[in-house]
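Our example copied in:
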Amino acid sequence: MTLVQELMKTELITVQPGESTSQVSVQMDRNGVGAVLVMEGSTLRGLFSERDLLRRVLAAGLDPDQTRVETVMTSDPVCVGPDASVRECAELLRKEGFRHLPIVSDGTPVGILSSRDFHEHLVEGLESFIREERYRKALEDGEDPYDHVGGSYAR
């Protein structure tokens, strides 16, 4: 069983509740992330994502320079611990319809899992499985796919 601590990103981008959504958006762009944790001291107050910017600021006709992130963030986001299973996290992301899941240990954020991270893990696992199955099949057929230098390991 794969645990979320094996997939989560631990370099957390955090912002303060009073920052403007414009300032926060620039930080998100610079760091190449789709969501940031809104912190007050060591306390997680919320999560602000690209979706929040689009729906709660721009589509609502608010001025990003005047809108404080705390007024449009997702307050009290659903969180899991680092020992949560990847399956549990995937089900949460699907069921709740969000794309970012903060990972919290003893009340302190220690990571974040995005649906992109989960999908990359899934694809890597499938590709590895397919490679192993192709190799196994080739061996059953009497071939050694890695014997391209000449000679055989079996001889």
